[in-house]
Design goal:
about 290 residues; alpha+beta; 2 domains
């Protein structure tokens, strides 16, 4: 009976080893086969300068919600949180602004205004529709759908260095990357568009290619790498929203194709060993 138990244990160990080996070494497609969730990265800018927040703004009920503390501090306002009342108080030499979580009441220098949406609590932050706060402080507000940015402008206002977001990419990078993603992946899913955007970014990091998004797109040293970029109208093209979202996801580090440098709608005969994955009928290669 003891021999049977020992044999059984050995068989279990062998089976566990085989399963682990198969999972780790023979099934690499698990990670890049996962579904991609849309992530909308919205940049907040004051007079063209991106400002730092620790919570990503979001769009809800056609309003862009931003973390009130970081925006108010960028306006040089003091911020006080009263947890018992779930109340936020913003002050500077001109204004005292009072607001409450889960309420649409906004009291400015003692006068009440009703917003059309409530202040919300999200990830430990009070989120407020940015337009209300910005317009109180005299800023003009617009949403740039080319770059998914909230732009607040007021002549003569300077953002303190401590509030500035140091991004590793520019608005031009977003626009050009979104354009090439749109023309190359017009009919693809978000996952496919994200993959195309990452091919371009992977090339900027590879010594065999130019090191900027623009130069990668228009690279023609050996051949036109992205033929649609050389067609009339490309430089004025407005990409659709999903292409902008995919471009910003890639620029923010969301990568679903590892270090792939090539893609094609047909398999490359001489690169079969370099195939990483296929997405929406497109073949992605190292």
């Amino acid at each position: 009976m003891d021999k049977v138990r020992i044999c059984y244990r050995n068989v279990c160990k062998i089976m566990l080893f085989v399963i682990a080996f198969w999972a780790v070494f023979l099934h690499p497609a698990v990670s890049h086969g996962q579904e991609i969730t849309e992530q909308i990265f919205i940049t907040i800018k004051i007079n063209g300068t991106p400002i730092f927040t620790d919570t990503n703004p979001y769009i809800k009920q056609n309003r862009t919600f931003v973390p009130v503390r970081f925006v108010a501090e960028s306006f040089n306002m003091a911020v006080e949180w009263l947890p018992e009342e779930k109340k936020i108080v913003l002050t500077d030499e001109e204004h005292m602004i009072e607001m409450w979580i889960d309420s649409n009441r906004l009291i400015v220098n003692g006068e009440e205004t009703l917003m059309d949406v409530n202040v919300e609590g999200f990830n430990g932050r009070a989120m407020v529709p940015v337009r209300y706060l910005a317009e109180i402080k005299g800023f003009e507000v617009r949403f740039d759908d080319y770059t998914y940015s909230v732009e607040m402008n007021r002549e003569g206002f300077a953002v303190h260095d401590s509030n500035i977001l140091n991004r590793p990419y520019t608005d031009e990078d977003i626009i050009w990357l979104a354009r090439i993603t749109y023309v190359e992946g017009r009919n693809l899913s978000l996952k496919g568009k994200l993959a195309i955007a990452n091919v371009v970014l992977n090339r900027t990091r590879n010594p065999n290619f130019p090191d900027t998004v623009y130069d990668v797109i228009f690279d023609s040293r050996y051949s036109k790498q992205f033929p649609p970029a050389h067609k009339p109208g490309f430089t004025e093209l407005k990409p659709d929203s999903s292409s902008v979202i995919a471009a910003k996801m890639a620029l923010e580090g969301v990568n679903n194709i590892d270090k792939c440098l090539y893609f094609n709608n047909k398999p490359f005969k001489n690169k079969s060993k370099d195939l990483y994955t296929t997405i929406d009928g497109e073949y992605f290669y190292y």
